[in-house]
Design goal:
Blueprint: H1 4-15, H2 17-21, H3 25-29, H4 35-44, H5 46-51, E1 53-57, E2 68-69, E3 72-73, H6 81-84, H7 89-93, H8 106-116, E4 120-126, H9 143-146, H10 153-164, E5 167-172, H11 198-213, E6 222-225, H12 233-246, E7 251-252, E8 264-265, E9 280-284, H13 302-313, E10 317-323, H14 333-349, E11 368-373, E12 376-381, E13 389-392, E14 398-403, E15 412-417, E16 422-427, E17 439-445, E18 455-456, E19 463-466, E20 471-473, E21 483-484, E22 490-491, E23 499-506, E24 510-519, E25 532-537, E26 540-545, E27 550-552, E28 562-572, E29 576-586, E30 597-604
Parallel strand pairs: 1-4, 1-10, 4-5, 5-6, 6-7, 8-9, 9-10, 18-23
Antiparallel strand pairs: 2-3, 11-12, 12-17, 13-16, 14-17, 15-16, 19-30, 20-23, 21-22, 23-29, 24-28, 24-30, 25-26, 25-29, 27-28
Helix pairs in contact: 8-10, 8-14, 11-12, 13-14
Bound molecules: ligand FHN.
Residues 77, 79-80, 226-227, 268, 283, 290 line the site of ligand FHN.
């Protein structure tokens, strides 16, 4: 059984990107759509649910400086250079004269996306710098009127998307616009405490431009609003209504604000490890920036991209993978190469991704990830297990097992231990993985796959108790206290009266090292340790301090390094069901981070 409260919490947090940035998860739950609106939303979401994989494109004037201003490298995201270097509007506007991307080839971009297996493209029609990348009649600050290029990028992309059958979607920054006095964000041209008429900016720029985008480029898949800072609920609603009035089939991203989007957006580069019930999407960078930055060479390996795509699919979401083209109009070769490799893998394994349903297991498996369809279970094997793969907890009878890419059959046995309530499927595998990234094994079962969802010791001996699957005790009421971020990691755990417990199954008795896995902040910027924890399980008590004893990186969420802390040793004499509780005795919160628990892990102790 899933602990309902913890699950509710991770779901709520995972829904609400804006959440992650600006709003509380609970604000979300008050937006009860009526049945008719819900049916409309359902209809609109049909293509999105099948798509699973899209291309995001951050392209604008910022590609010209490419991360460097007046001979200095500017830290941070490439598309934020105007803000980070505090470039005055009048100076930034001069970049228009250098924007002439002769190599831009809409056909080639869309072909690259199609061959990668992507089903939609979300391109920045206007990012926070306020510059429109299409021929706008609302403001001459646009690629057609203000640059020597004099071409409408979006017209050309719309044609190519039609030709190759991809959906064109527009990113539009609705609140931040550093070119406009009345908008949010530019406090270097104008004083931060100036009187702003945000509604005027909305009425005179945002709505007319969104209208152009939804009128002049044919059917649009979705409008990807972003960073809903300072926008009121009514204003977010005005935008949602405008989009749906102009194109009833067009989706609105979760970042329109106030939970009013058609689907939810996870935080940037955040991949949920918990089950998510609402439709959702996560935007991901291929290196560390969205807009092109010459010095950013921190490219994610293809294996990580495939793993993230599968991880998102296995949680019922869409993976929106970014490219940042250069000022010449080229998609960086490092991006193109990776996209081609992902496309090759996807072509051979598409059945396990498109339209696939989430993993029936609430927890992660040590060798990889599971997706399903009625009658099928797909085992995505990322870590090749020596001597075969053993899967616990599958209750459906397996009729056939084979490699999805070439249909080679695999031998297997399936057993059930009635006393333990424990099922084991044992698949014989060749010595090495047939695919360098992800070898997919398809299992044929009757109907919907049935599994036992109880946390269970894995065949490698580890027992992982994820924070978000723990039962929360002593929780503060209202919006305060411990909750789980979009990755499923505990945050705001600074109150020692709150504690977690888990029920789990031990298959092999023995001695176990108990580890606490906690998460640093993004890019390892900060972490809070020194908490005193009490662990109680199998009639034993361990008391230990959270220290930096080791580190780990989760390939799905590489920007948040994990810290591993040793809590002590536990003995389990008999196989069976156990409970474990984790009660903080003291919690440090000087940095306001508290105990950022990812999981408690029991690892067989060396004898
Ligand atoms: O500030 C933007 C950022 O530049 C980029 O566009 C990302 C993409 O998700 N969204 C905002 C930050 O979340």
């Amino acid at each position: 059984m899933l602990p309902a409260k913890a699950l509710r919490c991770v779901l709520a947090c995972a829904f609400a990107f804006s959440a992650a940035h600006f709003h509380t998860a609970r604000a979300q739950t008050s937006n009860k759509p009526d049945a008719a609106a819900e049916a409309e939303r359902d209809r609109r979401l049909k293509w999105f649910r099948e798509a699973r994989f899209g291309m995001m494109i951050h392209w604008g004037l910022y590609a010209v400086p490419a991360g460097e201003w007046k001979g200095k490298l500017i830290p941070g995201l490439g598309e934020w250079i105007m803000n980070r270097a505090k470039i005055p509007v009048a100076e930034y506007e001069q970049l228009t004269q250098q924007f002439n991307p002769a190599a831009f080839d809409a056909d080639a971009w869309v072909r690259l996306a199609r061959d990668a297996g992507m089903k939609y493209i979300v391109i920045t029609s206007k990012h926070h710098d306020g510059f429109a990348m299409y021929h706008s009649r609302v403001s001459r600050y646009n690629v057609y009127d203000a640059t020597p290029f004099k071409r409408d990028v979006m017209k050309e992309l719309a044609e190519a998307c039609r030709k190759y059958g991809l959906r064109l979607c527009f990113y539009y920054s609705q609140t931040q616009d550093w070119h406009e006095r009345d908008a949010v964000g530019n406090d270097w041209d104008w004083p931060a405490d100036r009187k702003r008429d945000f509604q005027r900016y909305l009425d005179e720029k945002v709505k007319p431009q969104v209208t152009e985008l939804l009128t002049n480029y044919g059917p649009i898949g979705l409008i990807w609003f972003d960073t809903p800072r300072d926008i009121t609920r009514e204003q977010s609603k005005e935008l949602v209504d405008l989009v749906h009035k102009l194109q009833p089939d067009c989706l609105v991203s979760g970042r329109v604000g106030h939970g009013l989007g058609d689907y939810d957006s996870a935080g940037d580069n955040q991949i949920s490890v918990g089950q998510v019930r609402r439709d959702w999407e996560t935007p991901v960078t291929m290196n560390d920036t969205w807009g092109f930055k010459r010095d950013d060479q921190n490219w994610k390996p293809t294996g990580v991209l495939i793993r993230q795509l599968v991880q998102v699919s296995s949680r019922g979401g869409n993976y929106l993978l970014n490219v940042g083209p250069t000022a010449e109009g080229r998609i960086p070769p490092q991006s193109a190469e990776r996209l081609t490799q992902v496309g090759r893998w996807l072509k051979a394994n598409s059945e396990s991704v498109y339209g696939a349903r989430p993993s029936p297991f609430p927890y992660e498996l040590p060798w990889g990830i599971i997706t399903t369809k009625p009658g099928r279970v797909y085992l995505h094997v990322f870590e090749w297990p020596k001597g075969g793969l053993v899967l616990y907890g599958l209750k459906s009878k397996v009729k056939k097992a084979y490699f999805l890419s070439n249909k080679t059959g695999l031998k297997f046995t399936q057993q059930s231990d009635a006393a333990l309530g424990h099922d084991a499927l044992d698949i014989q595998l060749p010595a090495s993985a047939p695919d360098t990234y992800d070898s997919v094994i398809a299992l044929e079962v009757a109907g919907e796959p049935q599994v036992d969802t109880m946390l269970t010791q894995q065949p490698d001996g580890t027992i992982t108790l994820p924070a978000h699957l723990g039962e929360v005790h002593g929780a503060a009421s209202g919006d305060e206290g411990l909750r789980f971020d979009t990755r499923g990691v505990a945050e705001r755990w600074t109150n020692r009266n709150e504690w977690l417990s888990w029920d789990f199954r031990v298959v092999r008795p023995g001695a176990y090292e108990v580890l606490a896995v906690t998460s640093e902040q993004k890019y390892g910027r900060d972490w809070e340790g020194g908490h005193e924890l009490l662990v109680e399980s199998a009639g034993q008590r361990l008391q230990a301090r959270v220290e930096r004893d080791g580190k780990e990186v989760d390939p799905a969420n590489p920007y948040w390094p994990y810290v591993v802390s040793k809590l002590g040793r536990l003995r389990v004499d008999k196989a069976g069901r156990y409970a474990l509780s984790l009660k903080p005795q003291t919690l440090r919160s000087e940095k306001k981070l508290g105990l950022t628990l990812v999981s408690v892990r029991l690892v067989p102790a060396a004898q």
